[in-house]
Every structure is written in C-alpha cells, then in structure tokens.
Amino acid sequence: MFGSSSKDSKSSNSTVASLNDKDSAATTVIAKGTTIEGKFACGENVRLDGAIHGEVKVDKRFVMGDGSYVQGNIVALNAAIKGKIKGDIHVKEALHLMDSAIIEGNITAKTMVVDEGARYNGSCRIGAAAAASTPASSVAAAKD
After folding, report:
1. Model pTM?
2. DSSP secondary-structure letter at 73?
C-alpha cells in the first residue's frame, strides 16, 4: 500500500510538471458545487465548474465548464466559456464562446470565436483598440 502511493505520487508529480511546462502556470480549480461570494482574483489560470457571485479578475486563462455561473464582471487575459455569465466580460486577448455559453452582458476582446449554439445579449467590441481599453468598474453593477 505504501509502495503504490509512492508510485502514484511520482506519476502525479510528473503530470503536474508536464502541465506546468505546457501552460507555464498553475491552475486553480473551483469545483462543481462550490460557490464564491465576493471579489475573486487569481494570478494564474482558473478553471470554474462552480459559481462566483462577484467580480472576477484572472491574470492568465479563465475557463468556465458546463453548468458554471458567474454573476458579475470578468476581466481575464484569455477565456473559454461554456457556462453562463450575467455581467460584462473583458478579455485582453482571445475569447472563445463554446456551444453552451450564455452571456448576458457586454463583451470586449481582442479576438473572439463563437461556436454554434453559443448566445450573448449585449454589445460586443472586438479588436486591439477595444481590448486595450480599461474595463469599467463593476462597483456600479454590484449595487444594482
């Protein structure tokens, strides 16, 4: 039993190392069933399968899985969305709205890919000039 856990530890360490080499960043995972209330900020990649009620700021890649939910504004370097967002999203580089994405808010990104089935209701500004603009504060939106 102790020998097998040692092997598992070695193989998981090599998996983590290869993920870190590939992404050159750690990933924070917010599991299904987890809800965060308030502002959320992370300097690394984030994978959201749960819910966040508040402002989200991710310095690297933000990924939302099926069934995930954000009520609040989002600022990220890159994003891939399969969940639901009720708020504005500002992506400095590439935004990918996957087939089950639902956005109720304004979108700003340098580039955007929208898969068949994805939906958004709000204004959409795409391009280098739009992405370089500073996102509006979500303080006013949080008061509504």
Report:
1. 0.77
2. -
